[in-house]
Design goal:
heterodimer, A: about 290 residues, 13 helices, B: about 270 residues, about 80% helix
Amino acid sequence: MNKRLMPYYLMTVPAVVLFFVFLTLPALQGVYYSFTNWNGFGDNFDFIGFKNYINLLKDGNVGNAYWFTFKFAVVVTILINIFSLLIAMGLNARIKARNFLRGIYFLPNILSVLIVGYIFNYLFSNVFTIWGQNLGIEWLSTNILGSEQHAWIGIVVVAVWQGIAYNTILYLAGLQTIPQTLYEASNLDGANRWQEFWKITFPLIAPFFTINMVLAMKNSLMVFDQIVALTNGGPGRATQSISHLIYTGGFEGGEFAYQSANSVIYFILIATISIVQIRFLQRREGDM
Amino acid sequence: MRTKTNWTVMILITLGTILILFPLYMTITIALKTPEDMLASVFGLPKELHFENFTNAIRMTNFFNALGNSAMVTTATVVLTLLTNSLVAYAIARNMNRKFFKGLYFYFISAMFIPFPIIMLPLVKLTAGFNMTNLVGLTILHTVYALAFNVFVYVGYIKSIPVALEEAARVDGTSTWGTFWRIIFPIMAPINATVGILICLSTYNDFLLPLIIISDTDSYTLPLVQYIFQGQFNTDFNLAFASYLMAMLPMIIIYLFAQKWIINGITQGAVK
């Protein structure tokens, strides 16, 4: 081995060891356990092949958690991207107190998701209901977190409220890379605001659109803290996300191996969605 | 045309801040009220300030112990992350033409797509076996799990630093280690700030990792304390909100002082 290269190899050793032990190894173990019937404690377990995976397909609770998580993730991703792009364009326009306003819009990102969830939990049960009653809006007069049909909307509200902050900053970074001269030129050519947006702004921030879509999707597919703080999966199992199901089933329900199999499927889905999203959006970036 | 203030946008953006500030206004006012005040008016300002909500919450949640734990884990994670993650990223960035390092790069960043729940269950067994169900373990795990994203950000940054600087140092007889610590690490200050801020926020606010790792109540971090507290005292909202406010306050204070820096840092990290 080249003597000059030696220090570089040594630099990587601690990171590689720790990374392997605490990330790769547990991931491999998870895959291994998914083929057993281990309950998480005790020494006795058998190798049962694909039985867990087959049972997962028939399990209504699992199907329910996937349906909830996907519905939630798609809605949140779309809403976050629409709002954060609008806010970023607003913050990038000629306005006063720009830095101050940017500071306020980024504030939700520095707060704990769990605590924000608790605060909104109170607002949903004791504050928004008062508005609903005063304004005579029926669906708002009772706590929507207690409703099987509407509880997921409450979680969407909280996730969007907090998620917008980070994506806004990323869009803002993207908008600042666009040279002003392009807008001046399009003004001379008589382009209207709508054309300006679709022909200049949007194509030029396409890479940021890709990052934001992938990040928002990935984060909302992993939703956990908000669920714990707002509904704990209820009412019934109406708002149980996949990660919440893995946590409760794996640690409290004695379904260690079974939920390991669930995790493997969850991982394959997240990885596939992220890769497909990146491929698809990058191809569009090229087209524009 | 674009030199004057755009008042339509200005007004819309200002109105939008109400949506951000309203929940925070409610948090502060509820933390300072009594249940009787709340019955009189949920939205109004408190008639008199009830700071005993804070003192009671401090006592009941053992607040300063949790704050100390959170501060310790966050500080240690930031320091450890800056020292170790930058080092391995440097080795990778400077040897990207070699198969081993390139492979390592993709090995690390592929972990960005691994959802935490897939390693959550085996991890609990693993950390129990290593006696790591404590604050030290929490620090190490936070550092390891941030590696994927940080290597990605660091490598991008280091590539933009000219190699000529290091070659000059090497001609002068400085070792590779010396070159890193004395020349590269100081040049990386802006990206270190970005990574440091992001790690600080994510470690301080993290709930799931401490939830599964920490079993000893004395080692609880702030989010964990709020979780337990919520279960036990969910009827006394004033007390609960006082404790939420105190748990969020350290980051809000840091944010007030370093706001511009934090936003710029995150913008820079994103563009890389």
